[in-house]
Amino acid sequence: MPPLEEALLVPSSPGRFKIYRPQSHIMNRAFHRCFASTTMVLLWALILIAFTASYLTFVDTGNRYLHHSSFWDHGGIGGIQWEKKVRSSAQILRADGISVLVTGAAGFIGTHVALALKTRGDGVVGVDNFDNYYGPSLKRTRRALLEAHGVFIVDGDINDQRLLAKLFDTVAFTHVMHLAAQVGVRYGVDNPYSYVHSNVAGLVTLLEQCKCAGRQPAVVWASSGSVYGVNNKAPFSESDPANPPASLYASTKKTGEEITHTYNRLYGLSITGLRFFTVYGPWGRPDMVYFSFTRNISEGTPITVYRVKDRVDLARDFIYIDDVVKGCVASLDTSGKSTGSGGKKKGSAPYRIFNLGNSISSPVTVPAMVRILEDSLGMKAKMDVTDVTGNVDFSFPHVNISLAQKELGYNPTTDLQSGLRKFVKWYLWYYGKPSAHLNQF
């Protein structure tokens, strides 16, 4: 029997197909007889040419069948009920509201942004591929939370051009909040292609869809503070040159900034890049250090605290999730409009980059963060202090957020102690752990 790729899908009735496989053993006998003469060889060549032309016509027709809603409905995407859910979720319920496609909607930041937009009456549709980077169970719980608030999340990949085209055909989105990405630093050592797939190819696929829309949406997307690279300057400012990246993740984000600049310049897409620093809070990512430290301390498991050369403690610019969400929403509200249509630029469009960090205090060292967690949990941590070896993402100096303050009205209000206590309270509730030792606040 020939392999599947040699088989043909033949329509047997509307929305149904049957598999036709050529009878190879019969064809082989025919070929042996027919190729006995030169004349028959030429005849068979003509037949093969004709068959190829017919096959290409069939493939084109088959592709049109695959786009038919009845076929997609069988897989849960693109059918009538699916379209109703998408349109209902995208419905705008306030005056001057916006309709937003949120990618990575079941992720940490994506969940909070989608909820904030929906709560104020905007239309929101989410997309997430529910990958297993840190296990999909938390993502699916976030999805349930969003759906309880009327936000529909499509289970799909942003590299799926057909899916994006269907979404844009169903809803004329005014904005895109692009938060889908492969995150993490150490993960890139063993899984480099996942970063290119999500952070570069996925970004281009999404921008291609936005550029070709009849009414181009404004795009806000997640860059990263890691694009500044290994840098001793303090504080980081958006006008500073980005040094050589310290990780593959940072490289893909730096590449993303170049790509978005190109699409803005060539096609008139309004684009805003947000350089996030260390975002933390309830419903956070389990791979983040504050999350894993909370888990280990509460379970009595030792934690490893790293130091860089000369025994200098690692430090981070921690920013609470609620403050980041305000920056994201303000970026959408002030994004301006794209100026192109169907890939044709009609005028210049805004291109902006903002730091979204914390202005309340200087970067906090990891040992200081541990002490706050100890106080919040009412438990002492078992610490192993280790000097860093190999490539790591080094300390972040203080970040300059004056541009975001001026243009977005961005002013963080949550200090690390308050934010971590809120996270600990959520953590103990979510994982059903006893909170008898929790210091109330």
UniProtKB/TrEMBL annotation:
Enzyme kind, highest EC tier: isomerase
Ranges that cross the membrane: 34-58
GO cellular component: Golgi cisterna membrane
Keyword check for NAD: yes
Name used for this protein in its record: UDP-glucuronate 4-epimerase
Membership in a protein family: Belongs to the NAD(P)-dependent epimerase/dehydratase family.
Domain named NAD-dependent epimerase/dehydratase: residues: 100-334
Catalysed transformations (reactions): UDP-alpha-D-glucuronate = UDP-alpha-D-galacturonate
Superkingdom of source: Eukaryota
Listed Pfam families: Epimerase
Alphabetized UniProt keyword annotations: Isomerase, Membrane, NAD, Transmembrane, Transmembrane helix
Topology in the lipid bilayer: Multi-pass membrane protein
Coarse class of the protein's main subcellular location: Golgi
EC numbers, comma separated: 5.1.3.6
Subunit structure, as described in the record: Homodimer.
GO molecular function terms noted in the UniProt entry: UDP-glucuronate 4-epimerase activity
Subcellular location, record wording: Golgi apparatus, Golgi stack membrane
